[in-house]
C-alpha cells in the first residue's frame, strides 16, 4: 500500500533523557493528560492553547491550573494562551523556549459540528498543523507527533481498521482535515526530513474527558437522572480507548524517532452501545432514561482498531479493560461533579452528542 511504499522500518532506540516538549492543546483532555505524564517523569512542557469555548472553558482553565499548581517550579510549565495559527506568537515560542519535541494535540474536534462550521476546522486543524510543521522544520525539531483520528476510516468498507486501509473517503470536514494533516506531514518529511508521526486515536474517554462525547454524556445523564439520547438500536459498536493507554502510546511515539509513520492507537476491541450503557448503569448505580434516535449522518456503525503496528513499532498495548475504564471514569465524575452544577452543552448547540471525535 501507499504508506508501506514510502516508509521503511525507521524506529530508533527510545530516547528517554530529559526533554522540553511543546504540547499544543495542553489545556484540553488528551493534551493535559500527556503534559501531566511528561511532567511526572521530569520533562518540562511548554503549552499553547487558545482555550476556545467549544466546551466549558472552566474545564480547560482548571486543567492548566492543576498542572501549574502541581509543578510550580520555574520552567516546568510554561503556558501561552493563543492561537497556534498566530505566526508571531508561535515563532516567539520556538525562539525563546526552544522546544525540540512537539506533541501537537490542539485541534477542533467533533464530527457533527464540523458539518455545521467547516471553516474553523480548516483553520485550526489544517492551517494550524502546517504552521507548526513549518516552524518545527525551521527550528530543528527532533520529533513531531500529532493527533490524527480514527474518523479518517469513516468512508471505508471494512470494520477492522489497519493503517494499510485506503482512507481517501473522509465523510466529514473533521475527518478530511485530519487526512489533510497526514498528507502535509508526509510532505514535510519528504521536503525537510522532519521526523513526524500521526496517531489515529479511537474514541478516547476517562477522567477529564470531553463533555461533548458519549462516555462523559452518558455518565453525566445517568448520574443526574436526565434523559439521554441513544443513536440507533444499540448494536453499533465502537473501539473505546482509556486515556492512560492513549498517553502511553503518545509518549512511546515521542520517545522513538520515526521518519514518517501513522499509527492506530486504540483498545483493539469493539464494545456495543448496549453493553456500554449497561456498564454505565452498573457503575453509576442508577437506571438510564433512554430516548432512541435515528443514526446520524457522518457516524460510522462500527470501529475497531488494528493495533498491531503500534505494538510492533512502539511496544504499545492497551492495558485498561473497558469495564475498569468506565468504573474509574464514573468515580472521577462522582468526585468532581457530585455537588456542583455541571455545565453541560445543550443539544444542538455546537456540542453535538457525537460518539466520534
Ligand atoms: P480537546 O478539545 O479537549 O482539546 C483540544 C484543545 O485544543 C482545546 O483545549 C482547544 O482549546 C485547543 N485548540 C483548538 N484549536 C486551537 C488553536 N487554533 N490554537 C490553540 N489551541 C487550540 O480535545 P481532545 O479530545 O483532547 O483531542 C486532542 C486531539 O486528539 C485533537 O487533535 C483531536 O482531534 C484528537 N482526537 C481526539 C479523540 C478523542 O476521542 N478525544 C479521538 C480522535 C482524535
Please give a structural write-up.
It is a single chain. The strands form 4 sheets. The chain has a 7-stranded parallel beta sheet, sandwiched between helices. Strands 7-10 form a two-stranded parallel ribbon. It is of the alpha/beta class. Helices cover 41% and strands 16% of the residues. The model is unreliable at 1-10 and 345-357 (pLDDT under 50). It contains 12 helices and 13 strands. Nicotinamide-adenine-dinucleotide (NAD) binds at residues 25, 27-31, 48-52, 54, 60, 83-85, 105-109, 124, 128, 147, 149, 201, 203-204, 210, 357.
Overview in brief:
This protein is α/β, with parallel strands linked by helices. It has helices at 2-6, 29-40, 57-70, 87-96, 112-116, 118-138, 173-192, 214-224, 243-255, 273-284, 308-314, 322-337; strands at 20-24, 44-49, 77-81, 101-104, 143-149, 196-201, 204-205, 227-231, 237-238, 241-242, 260-265, 271-272, 289-293. It has 12 helices and 13 strands.
Amino acid at each position: 500500500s501507499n504508506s508501506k511504499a514510502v516508509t521503511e522500518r525507521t524506529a530508533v532506540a527510545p530516547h528517554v533523557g530529559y526533554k522540553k516538549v511543546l504540547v499544543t492543546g495542553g489545556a484540553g483532555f488528551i493534551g493535559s493528560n500527556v503534559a501531566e505524564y511528561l511532567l511526572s517523569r521530569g520533562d518540562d512542557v511548554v503549552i499553547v492553547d487558545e482555550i476556545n469555548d467549544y466546551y466549558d472553558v472552566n474545564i480547560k482553565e482548571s486543567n492548566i491550573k492543576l498542572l501549574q499548581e502541581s509543578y510550580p517550579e520555574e520552567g516546568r510549565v510554561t503556558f501561552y494562551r493563543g492561537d497556534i495559527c498566530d505566526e508571531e506568537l508561535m515563532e516567539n515560542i520556538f525562539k525563546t523556549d526552544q522546544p525540540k519535541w512537539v506533541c501537537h494535540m490542539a485541534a477542533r474536534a467533533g464530527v457533527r459540528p464540523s458539518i455545521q462550521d467547516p471553516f474553523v476546522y480548516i483553520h485550526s486543524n489544517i492551517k494550524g498543523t502546517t504552521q507548526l510543521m513549518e516552524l518545527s522544520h525551521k527550528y530543528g525539531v527532533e520529533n513531531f507527533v500529532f493527533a490524527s483520528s480514527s474518523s479518517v476510516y469513516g468512508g471505508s468498507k471494512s470494520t477492522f481498521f489497519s493503517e494499510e486501509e485506503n482512507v481517501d473517503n473522509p465523510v466529514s470536514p473533521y475527518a478530511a482535515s485530519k487526512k489533510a494533516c497526514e498528507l502535509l506531514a508526509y510532505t514535510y518529511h519528504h521536503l525537510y526530513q522532519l521526523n513526524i508521526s500521526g496517531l489515529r486515536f479511537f474514541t478516547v474517554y476517562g477522567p477529564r474527558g470531553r463533555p461533548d462525547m458519549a462516555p462523559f454524556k452518558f455518565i453525566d445523564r445517568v448520574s443526574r437522572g436526565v434523559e439521554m439520547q441513544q443513536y440507533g438500536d444499540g448494536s453499533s459498536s465502537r473501539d473505546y480507548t482509556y486515556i492512560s493507554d492513549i498517553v502511553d502510546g503518545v509518549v512511546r511515539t515521542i520517545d522513538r524517532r520515526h521518519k514518517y509513520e501513522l499509527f492506530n492507537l486504540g483498545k483493539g476491541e469493539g464494545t456495543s452501545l448496549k453493553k456500554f450503557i449497561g456498564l454505565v448503569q452498573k457503575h453509576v448505580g442508577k437506571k438510564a432514561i433512554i430516548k432512541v434516535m435515528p443514526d446520524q449522518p457522518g457516524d460510522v456503525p462500527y470501529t475497531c482498531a488494528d493495533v498491531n503496528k503500534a505494538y510492533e513499532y512502539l511496544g504499545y498495548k492497551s492495558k485498561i479493560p473497558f469495564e475498569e475504564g468506565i468504573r474509574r471514569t464514573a468515580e472521577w465524575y462522582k468526585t468532581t461533579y457530585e455537588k456542583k452544577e455541571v455545565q453541560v452543552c445543550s443539544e444542538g448547540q455546537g456540542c453535538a452528542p457525537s460518539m466520534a471525535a
